[in-house]
Amino acid sequence: MATAIDAAHVTYEAPDLEVMEKFLTAFGMVKAEGSDDRTLYMRGTGTQHHIHVTRKAGKQRFIGASIEVATYDDLVELAAKPGSSPVRESTEPGGGHEVSMTMPDGIGIRAIWGREKAEPIPDRDPFVMNNVRDRNRVNAAVRQPVAPCTIARLGHFVLHVKNHDESMAWLNERFNFLPSDYFVPPGEEGPVVGTFVRLDLGEQLVDHHFMLVLQSDWVGVHHSAFEVTDMDAVMSSHDYLIQQGYTLDVGVGRHLLGSQIFDYWKDPFGFRIEHYTDGDIVDGNHRPTKFNGTASDTTQWGNRPPLEFFQ
């Protein structure tokens, strides 16, 4: 199976690219080279050429996600799977090669390799935190204005599918994902209706989750999540987006599964998008657990989502 090494970007369609660019800029992204009047490419401070793509279309729609793989041979292997495209040169800015695939419910997944790396954008260092035991910040103050934060990278995305087991089998046949935690119906021990998956990169530390696949009555994206510098970045951006009149969804709070400090917003076309920081980092010793609570129970503290949040 192919070795996935990073979440490259998510792709949407929307009727107004100027409106989307204004929001994503306020959210903390930067317009990337190659954007035109048909396609908007937005990047973060990291080395991915772009992390968010919006194509102009008459109606808003989630297209799918692109996953960076380790080698060209990974693309060759994926191209041999049923329903895959041949390996071909990418037509997106940054170049490289790709293989296009479609999950059982029609969600597009692209594997990419060889895309040109972007020059990182300088960002402030994370603020060092003092606590009752460790005095880490000495003769230095925290000064964070209310302003757009800086997005570092696409951290994960959550997909709603009609058949969880079928979708997980499709993914596991193609990529080296490992389970991190499972969702089961509230108050029950099974069946598994959602799986958090992480990358398997050997001894390298990875995020608790790269993707969540969740069984639902509808198909599409629940949200895309973008990592920011620290909690002050989350909070100051929260205030800024409120000042700009954008729509808060759920936040700020701390998740139970993955532990991230989260802040969910709705973009101008109704798609949910998340700022997060301070997520769990795991290695090969991590073993999945089962979660059988409600959506509200997924929050340890802070703004709790409504019961229908994951439906």
TrEMBL record:
<dbReference type="InterPro" id="IPR029068">
    <property type="entry name" value="Glyas_Bleomycin-R_OHBP_Dase"/>
</dbReference>
<dbReference type="InterPro" id="IPR004360">
    <property type="entry name" value="Glyas_Fos-R_dOase_dom"/>
</dbReference>
<feature type="domain" description="VOC">
    <location>
        <begin position="153"/>
        <end position="278"/>
    </location>
</feature>
<dbReference type="Pfam" id="PF00903">
    <property type="entry name" value="Glyoxalase"/>
</dbReference>
<feature type="region of interest" description="Disordered">
    <location>
        <begin position="82"/>
        <end position="101"/>
    </location>
</feature>
<dbReference type="InterPro" id="IPR051785">
    <property type="entry name" value="MMCE/EMCE_epimerase"/>
</dbReference>
<dbReference type="InterPro" id="IPR037523">
    <property type="entry name" value="VOC_core"/>
</dbReference>
<protein>
    <submittedName>
        <fullName>VOC family protein</fullName>
    </submittedName>
</protein>
<keyword id="KW-0479">Metal-binding</keyword>
